[in-house]
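Hey,
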Amino acid sequence: MDQTAVTLIAAMGARARHAATALAGMPTSAKAAGLRAAAAALRAEADAILAANARDIETGAANGLSGALLDRLRLDPARLEGAAAGVEAVAALTDPVGAVIDTSARPNGLQLSRVRVPIGVIGIIYESRPNVTADAAALCVMSGNAVILRGGSEAAHSNRAIHAAFARGLAAAGLPADAVQLVPTTDRAAVGAMLKADGAIDLIVPRGGKSLVARVQEEARVPVLAHLDGICHTYIDRAADPVMAIKLALNAKLRRTGICGATETLLIDRGFADPLPVLEALADAGCELRGDAAVQAIEPRTLPATPEDWDTEYLDAILSVALVDGVEGAMAHIARHSSHHTDAIVTDDAATAERFLNGVDSAIVMWNASTQFADGGEFGLGAEIGIATGRLHARGPVALEGLTTYKWVVRGTGQARP
């Protein structure tokens, strides 16, 4: 392993540990004040941040980044204001640190309680979206954790500008600037050093494509909170309202195609009365449809789907479409191809909806709602670290509570174990 990278991450980890210890003992008011100051700094330095982002966009376009990736990378005044407002929203959330999860009393008089505490030092490895720099920093600080951020090379200038403003805001409010650190190099060796920094980093959170997550899961010696592909499904049941079906299919796919909550596969019950208006609306809106023979027979603009299409996160205006035999057929398809991120049913039949909600094993399941609501902000959690698709620790949008663990507190009156 590259010793320079190992030394760098070890030093950053030591500073982060010191900052995390300080944060863990700070009251909610101090952390909130630090975040409000960081948000103010983001606004004050908006011109510099947007100029840095323009450099990244220019470089990305010259290097052939796809339209979807450029959209993820791009900042404008509205998106930057959204990031600053998101930091302020986190500052206003209920602080989970110190919350008592439950209590119990033993027959011998011991009083037990489980209390939420910070995890410690979080390492976040992410791609494309520079707003993650502010979102992740805010969530980690408010939950009492220090964070080491390693963004993608395509957003290097944007990340540095956002981090610099954020850290200055924290320091101005009296919080340790080392609570939020950005790895200063785009060398991939730094990622490897983070993954093996057991003892310096307590949890790794990858946010990016399949290759990044696969590398993290393969190489990590630190616990990982994984976010896999967003292969999300919308299922239109035979009892779906036709107008609602069109509205939700369009929104779930096309509102923003480059986010992980975008629907990538549309499933339609063979018993649904008229699928053609749904498919026409999508095709007319510029969405490329890829489907089986039955779908092609309904909407001639549909291209043939390959086996790979059902397992592809397009992040583009492309949608795979299949006809299925009722809710059981939809659930069987989802079980084979879903990434366990977000899957939705459109139906007016409550019993069918409950069958879907109970039977689909995904982090988020929805009834009569667009999959694009799969977002921490939309769930009232403020910003999010990501959507966890595993089954342990945290699942779905990971926000403040997901960045804490707990300890047992035992209060006695002199009991000695016999």
